[in-house]
């Protein structure tokens, strides 16, 4: 069962091929470069890689405008290079997930060119058209402040086409059975080339009804089951990780009441509450978000993250909470994006304070679900606010003090490597941190190992333990006769907490598996623990013979 549901106790690493390493010397990362860094990823301890889009694309939206679903963008290599990469990852025990961008295509895609050129084309109904501009064309934009409309007139088609995202990304008519059949072919193609699953981009928009007469889109959830059934017939342990920023009441619609739809979803509810907790040292909304997202099918799993390749979306917070997060982490206008989020990387958001960075990542690894790490966060990379929109947090990986951070031999990388300030590659890079036993990189490697040795977090049930302090979060996980208990202090000052682990006689002894600072209960069964500012503790409940005590069921 554990092997079948590998994603329950995985560590996923998100990266972009174009910004990881350039072996061709043209300034753009490629699969050969990524192949050469697989040993780094294996050594770090990740169990799966999530690749951002690498298919053929004009590159107007970092590859999220696909022009050919069955080919690698020639800047990154060939299909042969991709297969060599997936084979190399498999040799190292690393699975590969790729982005599945099927809500829209590039306007350069042959399907759209055929659709706009001839109203009788078989591809005409693969997109969404209207002879007149709909009255609600100025509503529902994904990128407000940058995007003006969701309907754009095409001179050749002599009609308006629908695009939830940018105007160069016309939406596919995903209600069309022919489009759905093509999506299955796309998934089947990449599965044959060594992929273990997909991160489904913009899942709610894919399954929503579309059209000029649609004022309130209806989600077609059966579509998710169709995708799931096809995928698992092709490869039994393959998965879909859905990007769906939804309310907790809709979680089972995406997972399926019987766990027959998406295996994984990103937990945006917890992510937003988490950053409010960082900003305010108030964990109460975070606890509520965890409790609200706790119910899920036994085979389903949450993907937990701190930062990703998009802005930090704060749309689910109250206005007061959102204001607190903006004030703490994105007070300047150029740090904010789309009237709802922050476009910075984690390290600069936390002021470069290693105590806070470690605490935040420790909390990520101890939240109920599977941790997803953004490339470069393991070394504390910064951002370049001079770059437009989300590109500020998509700069090349910083490998060494060599020119261009060891990313490329070219003097013109696809995006400028960060050179100036405390986050410049001269100060923040893999090579320097590898040699420092106290570096964030080596700390992250140890944390990943510790997280993988605590399957209770991925598989077990969690309980929030009362500490009497809203700024200290205590979580206990129970699974197969064993428990771990993890404390985090979100305060900028030390905190002493007294609590009952609620595990009877086993709870009288807590063994710290991070640094050996264990705790014994008093005569009433309570523990008193002193936590440093932004401190944390990972405890085994009852001793280190847990592997001997673990039950099989």
From TrEMBL:
It is an enzyme of class 3 (hydrolase). Coiled coil: none annotated. InterPro entries: Alpha_amylase, GH, GH13_cat_dom, Glyco_hydro_b, O16G_dom_2, SupH-like_C. It catalyses: Endohydrolysis of (1->4)-alpha-D-glucosidic linkages in polysaccharides containing three or more (1->4)-alpha-linked D-glucose units. Its EC number is 3.2.1.1. Keywords: Carbohydrate metabolism, Glycosidase, Hydrolase. It holds the Pfam family Alpha-amylase. The keyword Hydrolase applies. The keyword Cell inner membrane does not apply. SUPFAM superfamilies: (Trans)glycosidases (SSF51445), Glycosyl hydrolase domain (SSF51011). Residues 14-418 form the Glycosyl hydrolase family 13 catalytic domain. One of its GO terms (biological process) is carbohydrate metabolic process. GO terms for molecular function: alpha-amylase activity; cation binding. It comes from the Bacteria. Belongs to the glycosyl hydrolase 13 family. This is Alpha-amylase.
